Amino acid sequence: MGWVLNNLTESLLILGIVLLAIEIVVLGFSSFVLFFVGCAAVATSGLLYVGIIPDTMLAAMFSTGILTALSAFLLWKPLKSMQTNVDTSKVKSDLVGHRFILVEDVTPKLTPKYHYSGINWKLITTDNLVAGTRVEVIQVDVGKFHIKAI
Asked: Does the domain formed by 99-149 have CATH 1.10.357.20?
């Protein structure tokens, strides 16, 4: 405890960085609480280093508390809206566009398997396709190739 009090600036900087790392790496930036406290601890460390606030534990705790509340007040809505903006568009897969020749008939009710890249893919189509038809993958879902004739 003596080292922490004697090196308050460095201790707050280390604590702030550790809290930010835990929030981002471990919690995946999901709660923001450690983020606000970590930012406040780093900022307080900077204020102590410059000499704007006195080098006492009481002043450091007071500054950290005020800066935590201030950062939470200013950043809560922007960070929360950043979390809710989720891209719902389908990811373009490298498998889309893959062409092959059907070995079996494929219909909307008959969905045989196609072995490709070490996986048995279930073939899905809206048309009636006969064996020997050249097809192209138009969409990929988990374990499923959506295909159409070309």
From this structure: no
